[in-house]
Write a structure and sequence with these properties.
With 296 residues, the chain is mainly beta. The protein has helices at 14-21, 76-81, 91-94, 181-186; strands spanning 12-13, 25-30, 35-39, 49-50, 57-60, 89-90, 99-100, 102-109, 119-124, 130-134, 139-145, 153-154, 158-164, 175-178, 188-193, 203-204, 216-218, 220-222, 226-234, 239-248, 251-253, 260-262, 275-283, 286-294. Strands 3-2-5-6 form a four-stranded mixed β-sheet. A four-stranded antiparallel β-sheet has the order 10-9-13-14, with no helix packed on it. The longest helix has 8 residues, at 14-21. It is elongated and about 80 Å long.
Length: 296
């Protein structure tokens, strides 16, 4: 943890603090939203403002001396709170890093021309902990920490990432990365996420909710632009309903705004009986079938 001992003559940001300390990352606590905010040197911006009276987590790879320039705090209470508390964790302190109590997963997205409104969901499969980070420009930084300095990330942990677009639509496959000693030494896992919004393959996904009554959504993904239709069959193979979705662009179709929708009715507008049905996605080059259940 590090606090500003002096009032800086110029506003200080995460970038300038990292420059002074030689840090690989800076983490602040967003007290209002009770979440951590991270910044790394690969960010396209200067990051959050550094304020007096607040503690910041920094990771310093190598031991070094650094000094702050400024004046004494005029508010005595704030001055006391901002007294130096400099205990950055260095690589020399850790030896070969095997675990960390503060960590940032950061990176850049490649794909659409803009990522306004996008989020990245990060999950540690070992601990099942989950972080959501907003994308700014094409950059994101998902920060996590335990102020009691208990281990939260270890060597060998599998970190899963998924990108969510506006409206809650998933815009990427589930991507997996493994934590190495080098990542822990820097307290940063840096990644590049490419082909956002462009699936690697066509796929029909499980409908939700399932079982359902009276309506359900059928998610799918397309690796190329094509006309799409969904057909519903009963267990005898009889066609119950055909949903023509028209010509669709390549992409992920999984949110309620984008997935195929079935109201549980047949071609005559009558509600079908409870039971097992099959739904089939068809394009000129792809066909896949799954099972669904209506339960009344």
């Amino acid at each position: 943890m590090l606090s500003l001992p002096l009032a800086s003559p110029k506003p200080m940001t995460a970038k300038s603090l990292a420059g002074i300390a030689g840090a690989t990352m800076v983490i602040a606590l967003d007290a209002e939203n009770q979440r951590f905010t991270g910044w790394t040197p690969s960010a396209p911006n200067n990051g959050f403002t550094i304020e007096g009276g607040q503690g910041y987590i920094v990771n310093v790879p190598q031991t070094r001396n650094f000094a702050f320039v400024g004046s004494r705090w005029t508010n005595q209470t704030e001055a006391a709170a901002a007294a130096p508390d400099i205990t950055p964790l260095t690589r020399e302190d850790r030896g070969v890093a095997q675990e960390a109590w503060a960590f940032v997963i950061s990176g850049h997205l490649e794909g659409p021309p803009t990522f306004d409104g996008y989020q990245v969901i990060v999950r540690n499969l070992r601990t099942n902990s989950r972080i959501t980070a907003l994308v700014e420009g094409n950059y994101f930084a998902a920060a996590t920490a335990d102020v009691a300095r208990r281990s939260i990330v270890k060597v060998g942990d599998s970190i899963e990432l998924r990108v969510i677009g506006p409206g809650g639509n998933y815009e990427s496959q589930t991507l997996s990365f493994r934590v190495t000693p080098e990542h822990l030494a820097n307290a940063v896992l840096s990644v590049n996420l490419d082909n956002i919004g462009k699936p690697r393959q066509n796929q029909l996904l499980q409908n939700y909710p399932n079982p359902f009554n009276p309506e359900t959504w059928i998610p799918y993904q397309l690796s190329q632009d094509s006309p799409v239709s969904v057909s519903i069959y009963d267990t005898t193979g009889k066609l119950i309903r055909s949903l023509s979705l028209g010509f669709q662009s390549a992409g992920f179709y999984n949110s309620r705004e984008r997935a195929a929708y079935w109201d549980g009715r047949n071609a005559l507008g009558e509600r079908v009986a409870s039971g097992i049905y099959f739904y089939q996605l068809t394009t000129p080059s792809f066909q896949q079938t799954r099972r669904l259940v209506i339960l009344k």
